[in-house]
Amino acid sequence: MSGLHLHLVGDNLAVVGSDLDLTIRVDSKVGGQENGVAVLPAKLAADIVRSLDSGQITVTVDDDGAHLVAGRSDFNLRTMSVDEFPKFEEPGGDAVTLDAESVSAALEQVVKAASGDDSRPILTGVMLAAEGDGLRFVATDSYRLAVRDLPGTSVLGRDQTVLVPSRALEVTGRLLGDAEELTIRLADREASFVVDDVTIVTRLIEGEFPNYRGLIPSDHPNTLVVDRVALIDAVRRVGLLARDATPVRLAMSSDGLELIAITQDVGQAHETLDSTYDGKELKVAFNPGYLLDGLEVSPGDEVRLETIDALKPAVIRSVADEGFLYLLMPVRVS
Predict the structure, then answer these.
(1) Containing H/E element for 104?
(2) How large is the average pLDDT for residues 212-230?
(3) What whole-number distance in Å separates Cα of residue 110 and Cα of residue 116?
(4) Mean pLDDT lowest among 8-17, 152-161, 245-254, 269-278
(5) Torsions phi, psi of 75, nearest 5?
(6) Which 3 state secondary structure label does DSSP give 137?
(7) Which residues, in sequence order, are CB contacts of 255 under 8 Å at separation 6+?
(8) What global pTM score does this model have?
């Protein structure tokens, strides 16, 4: 699994890397001279190619190994067993083509909320679900929850859901920047994502995703509307004094919004912002990193923070776009 599988047919070079859970294939046009297959040590080969000056590189493979020549640089590498490398097979299922820009935005908004703790594999995935006439992305690490809807995007059957590893979607998202389309195939246990000449195949996560709908409060008595960029900047500034897991406190009233961070033996920070508030006076504390993650990916100029009290989940929504929701658990403070 530490190798890269190279397969040359004519002028098409297919390069495959895999750890069995995630497989990536890149197809490139090259000046092929003789068809063949080889497995090169991935990290070393990549480091060598990256270190070379731009321009042509010639790769020759024979019984003695691989020979890489570029300009005055000359490298010989031992190759690895071709027979031991897993065969690349694309999943079955119907191909569905989606707009790359909208999917890229959805992944940027949701993937961060997935857990990085492999001891809870269910939470390391992003759930794709059929929602109305569109597609819904959902992720949670039990501290925050992100939900994004793409209306008019049909990939799954009615009430169908799949759980895709967030790592695969993170890689896919990085490829979507300049692309126009994304092609998805969903099988029973695998999914593939094709962006231009790159194909990503991942195993789906088995198990039941948490009942996220039950986590979203149906009613909020308190609503704060504030400029999104101004709040982001204020949280970053005040957060400089939020050391060692210290939360940032938001004091909300009809007079405006005050942000407070207090770290014992270090200092404290205060900042006020203009805002519109409807509800009873409330002070609620959040992990500043998690709060920023939600604010930074919320679309539009203004956000709406909906709260119940200092201990129940709060919801961040865009004033201009109801298709995205970010739920955040408060931090208990004395």
Answers:
(1) helix 100-110
(2) 93
(3) 13
(4) 152-161
(5) -125, 140
(6) strand
(7) none
(8) 0.88
